[in-house]
């Protein structure tokens, strides 16, 4: 009898250990790590996110692309732009065999569906491929997204958005938002705030999944704190209802609105955490918070490290409490980690590596280097060294090489191309980069009509100067070319 009881207890424990976790993946839009309390910002009001970082793991160095579309493509596919062709907004190379993007590069949503997960996406899609998230090949069971004229025209009856507009072609994502939920245009008032509605959808999706007793993956790429088309809007904790902002706002007011939007995101995260508690699924649910790229103007689209230096913090079952870590990761690691948590087979033809061994405590290290690609710039990082703006198209084929040590966010970096004590590290890093051939001006895509137009805009002197350097407020190290 004792042996039987022991066996049953072991099987019960094994079943608990093997249980597929629910996953809530929240992705902020256009915001750098230095906007958050858990990354050292003493003015930020982000207690819910600070607690996730304290109770779980917060990566001091996490990388993505420095621009929206490629960043989200990297997240969804676990593969770098050199493989997928997703280099920049408006610069997605056609797939080799003429397939759709997600036919050629399966999404994490599709892979999680295969493992029995219910999947949903809310907020802002903006992957850059032709496929919509509700299409079968992409893999989301439900969606609730800020959409535009093209998506409205594809709905039965071609309904019209009667709320607010950011410009003549862009419906609002904030006050009076244009939201399509599961193939139907939502009826919204000008006093409705888009992020509130997306958060409600995520909470409803979680509740339905729990009732169906199925594991779920809720992907929440937010519309904020990214500004509206014409400026930074107000939010429910700051300013007037329905104010979408203006380009004429004073810089100080733009800054206040941006901070308020970011602080409000923390409130929304608190609502999601409360729903998880109310559903009694805390012990079964992993919560991840990240950002797609750096803050607009000061980081976004630049080929420097700050451009693609992003937030990545998480907590939940099977994740050892480590707090801030100096281990490094990039967003190609998200897909294989999800599949690993689900108990599935990680695809072989991707670039990412599962974080599960490190997060669980089975390993004290994750990977030796991380890679970034923004348009024609390449970047590579180890725990101690950095190569950035490696860009033959802009006349910088070798990029810039630095010794960073334990420093982060550009402070204390030492230019090291000519320092013999760092020659071995530089040689090894450049050897890694040989696996990712840099784009050249004679690339066939640049010979197409679309490619020629893109390149003409991209290589003008003003664009080159911005892309190859940090914003003036973040020039903390030697950027000579």
UniProtKB/TrEMBL annotation:
It comes from Lentisphaera araneosa HTCC2155. Residues 1-18 form the signal peptide. Residues 21-343 form the Sulfatase N-terminal domain. The keyword Acyltransferase does not apply. Belongs to the sulfatase family. One of its GO terms (molecular function) is arylsulfatase activity. Keywords: Calcium, Hydrolase, Metal-binding, Signal. This is Arylsulphatase A. It comes from the Bacteria. InterPro entries: Alkaline_phosphatase_core_sf, Sulfatase, Sulfatase_CS, Sulfatase_N. Pfam families: Sulfatase (PF00884). Transmembrane segments: none annotated.
